[in-house]
Amino acid sequence: MKKIFGKPDSLTDKRTHYCPGCGHGIIHRLIAEVIDELSMREKTIGVAPVGCAVLAYDYWNFDVTEAAHGRPPAVATGIKRVLPDKLVFTYQGDGDLAAIGTAEIIHAANRAENISVFFVNNGVYGMTGGQLAPTTVLGQRTATAPLGRDYKLDGYPLKISEMLSVLPGVVFLERTSIFNVANIIKTKQAIKKSLIAQIERKGFSMVEILSPCPVYWGLSPKQAMDRIKEEVTKEYPLGIIKEQN
Amino acid sequence: MTNKNILISGNEACAEAAITAGCRFYAGYPITPQNELTKYMAERMREVGGVFIQSESEIAAINMVFGASLAGAKAMTSSSGPGISLKQEGISYIAACRLPAVIINVMRGGPGLGNIAPAQGDYFQATRGGGHGDYRTIVLAPASVSESALLTYRAFELTEKYRVPAIILSDGMIGQMMETVSSKIFDKKEVENKRNWILTGCAGRQPRLVKSLFLEQGALEGLNKTLQQTYKKIEQKEVIVETDYEKDSKLLVVSYGSVSRIVKACVKKLRKQNIKVGFIRPVTLWPFPHFEVKKLAGKKTNFLVVEMSEGQMVEDVRLAAEGRSKVYFYGRSGGHIPTEEEIAKEIKKYIK
Lengths: 245, 352
Hints:
A: alpha/beta; two-stranded antiparallel ribbon; 9 strands; B: five-stranded mixed beta sheet
């Protein structure tokens, strides 16, 4: 019998620790599928974040390191400058990339570091108990914004992708989501574009992926997917933000 | 290489010795009094085909060193007190992941922004780990420009051998002054790199992982025990200490780094006046020469610790003396350097 579907070589057999309805499992797999399709598994070095996805290194079947909170772009810079022919990417959440690691992401982008960044935006700190993230939308209740995000107290949702789009070192930026199959396919295409841009030595690229956190949104997995479509994409519109040829 | 004398600063000597040892990755951020080192690296890395990055922060610099080291490069960063504080997060991760790395601290006056004059207030920070968690760093303290070079080269050897981060604890005086050194000190082979654990892509082997998170029961304690075993070996094998007139001294003056040169000159002068004073200089601050100090402690000998701080290394001398000798202290801080006369006056207080 001909095998028509299987687990990507770039994933291990380990069961993930993610909560039901979490987006990380889907996104890990998309990255693994693309790396397989590009035949880059044996040339890849991933940088895992601090946060829910810290254990990503257990699920990917290639070389991985784990950086301090917010520092993956600096660690990836060190790796890529030493090994310019390898495929180097960071996988970061919104607390990691848009709060504690804001300096690192902006300056890696501005140096046009030839790396790929996969930025998973679910609007909360999942690992630590659902606190307010820089990307939390206005009005959203969190552990540390019990009455909902109020710009007078907590500031506004931070749009890192739009901020990075003004930097000349950034060659590709797209915001995608995984709330339905069509968007999962678009996310995979964006991941592929980003990794190809790196292989072609074009410079810095990033894919921001809107992802659900049903547990800390207080919703069912289905409701969480619907919320991305109905609410989150209003604050964070999907699509290519920058693409340089 | 023909032997010639060259005039060079301590900071530049550290940088050139790093290149000699095979350092091919440097990331740093401007801060006085270590700027000569960063500038030198910007030029030299280009010449030797290495990587130089002026990072956006000290935090980024140390994390770049983390990435470069796990990718196989001999890597270094440098700074001064305020910047070294920022690097502590990264140093803790480097220690936990058992990555070789060299960090140069050209000490200035502190705490806070302090000032940019020479000081020795970062002894605690350097010798006690500095960041969070149960770890140590190797700490070497040069007292001259040529030693800045020799000990930086040694730091690369030690960090490569033990996979423990190594710190050069210099200061604004040693770093910025120029001295004549023989070009021979840079005529050495690269330090051998035998790393068989680096991340280079998993072609032809199983994927590798470099990490410091250990959630499984017992795993983290396992790492800590491994680290402690390594530290024990370093304590047994790698102590360097310089002593003089120690046999018949009633008072042994303990000092390190730049101030040890003033102490040395002072002790020599007093010896000519038949004053029974001697000299101890720890060159490795960690491992501290506990055993050597303990051996010299006893009823007939007391210690005077002289530092450019309000008293930090003095605690190690007290620990080593184990109450057998009196341990006195004289310190100046905030960028003040004790003079020979001040030290002589202090010595005479304790030797009648």
